[in-house]
Amino acid sequence: MYDFVMSTFNRLVDVFDNIIDDWMGITQHRARRVFKDYIPPPHCRWCGQTDSIDACCGGERIPWSRLYSLGLYDEPLSSAILKGKFSKWESGLKYLGRMLGNQVKGSVPRGTVVTPVPMPFIRKFTRGIHHSSVIAHALARRAKLPCRMLLWKRNGQTQAGQSETARHHLQLKSMNVLPWAKIEGKHILLVDDVYTTGRTLRVAVKHLRDARARSIRVAVIAVTKMPRKG
C-alpha cells in the first residue's frame, strides 16, 4: 500500500512540475527530475569501482562481504551529495537512499540491521542534518529492514580536504559501539554517503566485528574513482 500511495503521489508531483515548468518557465530541482534517466553502472561487489570489475581490487583485503553503490563520485551524484550535506537537501538524500534500497532489497539476509556511519554531535548540530542517517533510514524503509544507531563518534577534525595519508591515520578511539547496541549474531548493513579511502568504513567495521556481528555489508551513494594499480 505504501509503495502504491508513494507512486501515485510522485506521478502527481511530476504533473505539477511539468505544468510549472511549461507555463511559468520555473524548473523544480527535485531529485526525481535530476535522476529520472540515471542508471547505476555495474560495479565491483567489494570496492565499488566501475572499470576493470573483475580485477580492480584483486589481492586487497576487503573487510566487508559486499558493497552497494549508485556509481562513481561524479555528476550528478557528487552535486546531490554536497547539496544534501551542506544545504540540507533532505529530500534528495532520501531519494538516493531509496535508490540504494532498491539494490539491497531481497539481496541481504533476513533481519539485516541497517546502521549509518556515526556523526559527532557538534557537527550534526552545526550542519543541521545527519546525512548518513537520512540515507540509511530511507534505504531501510525501501528494503523493509530495521534501522538502528549502533555506533557513536566523538567530535574531531573533519576529513574533508585532508590527504589520503591523513585520513588513513584516523584513530580507532574516535568511534565506538553504543553501550546498548545489540550487535552480536546480527547481519549488519553499514551506510555512508561516499567511499573514498575506506578508512572510516574500516574503523566502523572493526568495531562491529569486535562486537561479534555475524556479517557486514556496506552501502554508499558514491565511490571515489581510484587510480589503477600497476
Proportion of helical residues:
25-40%
Overall tally of domains: 1
Q: Mind telling me which CATH architecture this is? A: 3-Layer(aba) Sandwich
Structural class: alpha/beta
Number of strand elements: 6
The total of helices stands at 8
Low-confidence runs: none
Q: Could you give the order of the helices and strands?
A: HHEHHEHHEHEEHE
Which quaternary structure do these chains form?
single chain
How far is the N terminus from the C terminus?
A: 52 Å
Shape: globular
Mind describing the biggest β-sheet? 4 strands, parallel
CATH C-level name: Alpha Beta
Give the neighbour order of strands across the main sheet.
1-6-5-2
Molecular structure report:
- By secondary structure, the protein is α/β, with parallel strands linked by helices.
- The protein has one domain (35-223): Rossmann fold (3-Layer(aba) Sandwich).
- The protein is built from eight helices and six strands; from the N terminus they run H-H-E-H-H-E-H-H-E-H-E-E-H-E.
- A four-stranded parallel β-sheet has the order 1-6-5-2.
- Strand 5 (187-195), helix 8 (199-210) and strand 6 form a beta-alpha-beta unit.
- The N and C termini lie far apart (52 Å).
- The relative contact order is 0.16.
- The model has no long low-confidence stretch (mean pLDDT 83).
